[in-house]
Specification:
The chain is 21% helix and 18% strand. The protein has 123 residues and is of the alpha/beta class. It has a domain of 69 residues: Ribosomal Protein L15, Chain: K, domain 2, CATH 3.100.10.
Length: 123
């Protein structure tokens, strides 16, 4: 019997999906480590006022976590005057925020702060 014979079924080596390389016998794997952006639309910012950052968006339940990248996209109109401090925004969204009397500042993703319990556990 040939190696890999599976009793009339397709051989395991043929059944498993292969990673595709560059055609020269080199197997290249693509690793998707890129962080996805949380998207917030302009129309959702109308209920907020003052300074709006990742923590304010998370408190308003517009994003899942304040420690992720946030991008503001244009959909709808904004009427509230807000000072927006997030990681990214589209050009048209920045223009709409400035037109409504607000401002946009690009900031880094907030870093998580280790609690006292976590530092004790690691020692």
């Amino acid at each position: 019997m040939p190696a890999g014979f599976a009793g009339g079924q397709r051989e395991l080596a043929q059944a498993v999906p292969k990673s595709r390389g560059d055609g020269k016998g080199v197997r290249k794997f693509t690793v998707n480590n890129r962080r996805k952006s949380e998207v917030v639309y302009l129309e959702n910012l109308n209920g907020l006022s003052g300074t709006v950052d990742n923590f304010a968006l998370a408190a308003a339940r517009l994003i899942s976590s304040p420690y992720l990248k946030v991008k503001i996209l244009t959909r709808g109109e904004i009427t509230a005057k807000i000072d927006l401090k997030t990681q990214a925004a589209s050009k048209s969204a920045i223009e709409a925020i400035k037109k409504s009397g607000g401002s946009f500042t690009r900031v880094e993703i907030p870093a998580r702060v280790k609690s006292a319990q976590e530092t004790v556990d690691t020692k």
